[in-house]
Amino acid sequence: MKLWNISFGFFGVQIAYALQSANITRIFATLGADPHSLSYFWILPPLMGMVVQPLIGYFSDKTWTRFGRRIPYLFIGAAAAVLVMCLLPNAGSLGLSTSEVLWGFSGAMLFGLLSLMFLDTSINMAMQPFKMMVGDMVNEKQKAQAYSIQSFLCNAGSLAGYLFPILFTAIGIANVAPEGVVPDSVKWSFYVGAAILILCVIYTTANVKEYNPQEMAAFQEGAKQEHAAVGGGESDMAHAMKVFVQVGVVQFFCWFAFMYMWTYTNGTIADTVWHTHDTASEGYQDAGNWVGVLFAVQAIGSVLWALVLPRFKNIKVAYAVSLVIGGLGFILVPFCPDKWLLFVPYFLIGVAWAAMLAMPFTLVTNALEGNPRMGTYLGLFNCTICIPQIVAAALGGVLLSALGSVQGNMLILAGVLLVVGAVCVFFIQERKAHA
Known about the structure:
By secondary structure, this protein is mostly helical. It has helices at 2-30, 38-41, 44-61, 71-87, 107-137, 140-170, 184-207, 213-229, 237-272, 282-308, 315-332, 343-367, 374-381, 383-402, 407-425; strands spanning 100-102, 105-106.
């Protein structure tokens, strides 16, 4: 139950993240963004994560309050996220200019960009403490279980966030709006997601008591002794950094690929299934709702595959096989002309997502076991998630043009990148004792 309580707030945080992932392309396309510019809007989330998460790790390592060391950052981040979640989907409803005002952006798009920047800053501020509390308070034997619980809550939150727009449409909330205005189904999804987020975070802050400095020192000393007993040691930072870099290389190809899924799924299925490029059309908005359903299928695939992963005897084989299956899913997406048939590739993509959620942090935190600067290193490790997304977003328009301006081709490229990542898995020098 304590392992559950440490991570429960992650459910609410992940709803916010899922709403952002599934709807940012839809929101900015509705506000008038060109498909060749869509990837640029995705630079802000990983950029803010790369800045915020190492800082949260560094400062929270040095923070000791009556409320804990990580929880104050968690609560402040969640409160800010709730505010911004109520603002972002209203970018087209505030009477702001819809014509160009700066660098090709309208006033509504600039407001949306500013809101997105603050939303991702606050989500990152709320998300990172959960990973750090597992590193702070859970021993090596229970860590895999703790991250499995976190992975389950992550996917459950994603499932809810992805399905909100289509559920609200089903109960009669409008899924179409005037040109340049985000539909009410999306707005209400963000409002309800914000309410759940703050309730989940309140639950965690009320039920988790972090270690005080004396308890933390005792825990870290015990962790060092345990780590040494299975082949590690206090002076083993060279190996830890080697694992850090090797896992980071795999992360680069994985997150590069998933950036293009989030950016180009909406346009791809609007084209291949609904046969439209008109962002104000009912077909495009229906495709936007269906993106949430497909991402929910991905989350279900991830949950089910997470039950299979422990059955592999070799962790690197499990990791690599998962990425290859996910890569095949990406490649299949543009060749599915029926919306129901798309369940197959997105279920396969969920297989890769399950491995990406659990294995990198398990490998790295085991290598860093007992290190008093765990939060700082995990914050820095988040750069292996953020940097590839920034590079992918910066190159998105160029690569889209090179691939014939067909958004489906970007998903095929994503599949190839996951296969490359699978090959890189076998270069990770993981300790046999931790396998």
